[in-house]
Amino acid sequence: MTISLDLPVTTTAPEREPVIAVRGLVKTYGKVEAVRGIDLAVAPGEIFGFLGPNGAGKTTTIQILCTLLRATAGEASVAGFDVDRDPDAVRSCIGLVFQDPSLDQDLTARENLEFHAIIYNVPRSVRRRRIDAVLEMVGLHDRASAPVKTFSGGMKRRLEIARGILHAPQVLFLDEPTQGLDPQTRAHIWQYLGELRRAEDITIFMTTHYMDEAEYCERIAIIDHGSIVAQGTPDQLKGMVGGDVVTAGTADDSAAAAEVSAKLDVNATVTPDGVRVEVADGAAFVPRLIQVLSVPVNSVTIRRPSLDDVFLKLTGRAIRDDEAGSMDQLRAMAQMWRGRR
Amino acid sequence: MDTIAELARDAVAIRQQEVRTPRWQRTLRAIYVIWYRDLIRYARDRTRLVASLAQPLLFLVVFGVGLSSSLGSVGGGRGGSAAFSTGGASLSYIQYIYPGVVGMAVLFTAMFSSMSIVWDREFGFLKEILVAPIDRSAVAIGKALGGATQAMLQGLIMLAVGPIIGVHLTPLTVVEVIPILFLIAFTLTAFGVAIAARMRSMQGFQVIMNFLLMPVFFLSGSLFPLVGLPAWMTVLTRIDPVAYGIAPLRTAVLSTSGAPGAVTRELASVTWFGWQVPSILALGMLSLLGSVFLGVAIRAFRVRD
Hints:
The complex is a heterodimer.
Chain A: E1 20-29, E2 32-42, E3 47-51, H1 58-65, E4 73-78, E5 81-82, H2 87-93, E6 94-97, H3 109-119, H4 124-137, H5 153-166, E7 171-175, H6 183-200, E8 203-208, H7 211-214, E9 219-224, E10 227-232, H8 234-239, E11 244-250, H9 253-264, E12 269-271, E13 274-279, H10 282-292, E14 297-303, H11 307-315, H12 324-340
Parallel strand pairs in A: 3-8, 3-9, 6-7, 7-8
Antiparallel strand pairs in A: 1-2, 1-4, 4-5, 9-10, 11-13, 11-14, 12-13
Helix pairs in contact in A: 3-4, 3-5, 4-5
Chain B: H1 2-20, H2 23-44, H3 46-75, E1 82-86, E2 89-92, H4 93-123, H5 125-130, H6 136-159, H7 171-196, H8 202-218, H9 231-239, H10 243-254, H11 261-268, E3 271-272, E4 275-276, H12 279-302
Antiparallel strand pairs in B: 1-2, 3-4
Helix pairs in contact in B: 2-6, 3-4, 4-6, 4-7, 4-8, 4-10, 6-7, 6-12, 7-10, 7-12, 10-11, 10-12
């Protein structure tokens, strides 16, 4: 399936030599195409987001960039090293926070970090200080000697992020970094990631299916069914929607939608929240809307377009629609098959 | 924020170090830390420690006492619990199987310690190791050494039982036994690692282990001497690698048991067409096999999908 676009794909070319460069990347599992020809360029110091629903190919792409998977076709380089020809060099430049937990539950927080520091060759002279600093940063210093299995989900996540930055990587990959965390913790994590990025000149490449998390990114690529459908800054992407999103809750939404479409020459759709219209100037539109409607109006909201609206516009679906199910199943089957071989 | 400035300063040092350290040094360090982690986990997991001693002890008591008594009465003329005797000197059955049961503790610990790889895969920690900038050989070697060390320690703990059942061990014997235990442990762990490296599920690994572990243990000469067996069984016992670990172990453990050397050697050795395979050759073959398994394990870890 290909998605036809009326809108131009916005791309901002990085000015410096890109720290992550991807050309025509393809990954297939048997007959399933998880990634179908992706092109990317991420500038040094950038926070780059990969936004898309579950099963869109985000994790597969990240695993290829981290040398955990081999691409079927195409090229990718990280920090100037080819991921296929020089995986060791790539590995020593990157930090990785996985989507799934990857801590040793039986070790303490400090032991997990010590293990990491040693295999990542952190010099002994700074090892202890560095571990203390990252623990301090994620607010786990007082729990350093507790076994990880006693930690809450949020604490484990913070510890994984601390581990990801421990060895001062040039590029930090975050796969769904704050999944399942409360908004306060999420905001806190992003605050120190932002500070650290400036201090240590780190490039951050992250995947997410949370719109509000994507807002922390400087540039976003929207991925769906293994292809990039749009790329740009959050504002550029939102600009694709055009103006404001007006949602009106009425007594009969489908009747109201038909009426609005006919009388006001706009494209009104019915959503669970009510009749939804995208217009250039929301404030000016509302009085006209109420005037033309014969159906009683219960509520009206005007808001700036979110990335959710962009995704809806580009793919015709909301990002939360869980169409990933079948894809995940196929992938799981492919994995089982490989295991048995 | 103060921490940030601190972090930034150290970051520079860390990135420079990355370039400076030679590859072999990093590989050695990775082997060390993977081995060390296994030992920490071993020391903390008291349940497993006790459980993996309980089974061999059970075998020792049930088979040792049970068979000693019945063999003794069946053998009649030999008298008492002396199951094996040559020229007046005798060895009880429990003393005979004791080294085999020590071997069993090593065998089971070695195989199950390699299961931690499948475990790590399931719980994600393996990814942390596989994405690290280390040679994948370090993963296989570190795991094999970690499992081997645990299995060897488990075997050494079992040596404490010796004096209770009348097998006297001198310090020299213990020193002699340590490398033998380690070799058995290493070969079996390397085998386990080679299999575990390919397994994606715990169940699969357990099925394979149960399928291999029990026959390999029973045919190794742990519980009965490998003499006077039917031809088909003789062949199976001679191709069982564990037999070449148990024989030197038994020869060493029983060397100071009071029974004459000829008796122990005859009962302990693996023979090829009547020729007693010397301990040194048996151990040589075992370590060769262990290296082959390790090679297979290293290859398995180097594969990327």
